Amino acid sequence: MHLYINTTSPFVRLVRLAIEEKSLSDRITTEIVDPWADPAAFLAANPAGRVPVLTTDDGVSFAEAHLILRYLDEIARPSLFPSDGLAETLAIAAPALGAMEAATAVIIGRKSSDNFDSDMVGSKRFRSMAEGLERLNARLPRDFANRPDIGNIAAITALDYITFRFPDRDWLADLLELAAWRERQNGHPSVEATMPYI
Fold it and tell me: Which parts form a coiled-coil structure per UniProt (predicted)?
């Protein structure tokens, strides 16, 4: 299998965390692309021009992190959507994914407007990030050492992406439970192997 990635996308990290936790690294080659450069082979695999994009061993290509996670869950264990406690797990994942999507919207919005952060849309996105992290602080994910699932994968992706992209704010200053949770994940192999970088 082949996976188009970049080194910063939180959507890519969701998939890469799943690959690591499912021990699929030796079955999937990765290729770093610049989605904004519109390379031809990449666009042939995904006309929307977004990462990640997975091509299966049968030559079928599809994008969108949630769809790729669904496929990976079908071909390898452990499941990221465990039947026991599924609703609780999804309730943890939802605000994390919302915060992550808000953060990427700010990064993209800044490309088109110097005032994006302070306009109506940008302000709402920053509020979504802060409130998403507050909800995670109130309802912590499982530790990775306990069990990987969509809740902790989404939570660590959102938290690390927000602190990576917006380092001028101490996002965890008042979120002591979430800060302690993040500290406990240090050293976990999938977490360390997938950290975003420029």
Answer: none
Specify the 3-state DSSP secondary structure of 115.
coil
Whether 196 is covered by a domain: the verdict is: no
For the record, the structure tokens of 82 come out as 């465990």
pLDDT digits (tens, 9 = 90+) for 144-179: 999 999 999 999 999 999 999 999 999 999 999 999
User: Which whole-number Å values give the CA distances from 156 to 13, 48, 65, in the listed order?
Assistant: 10, 26, 15
Q: For residue 38, what is the domain's CATH number?
A: 3.40.30.10
CATH of the domain at 111: 1.20.1050.10
The contacts of residue 117 (CB under 8 Å, 6+ apart) are 106, 110, 123, 126
Expressed as residue numbers, the domain containing 98 is 86-188
Cβ neighbors of 194 (< 8 A, separation 6 or more) are 13, 16, 17, 20
Please tell me whether residues 12 and 45 are part of one structural domain.
yes
Low-confidence stretches of the chain (pLDDT < 70) are none
Distances in Å between the Cα of 88 and the Cα atoms of 41, 107, 143 are 40, 30, 14
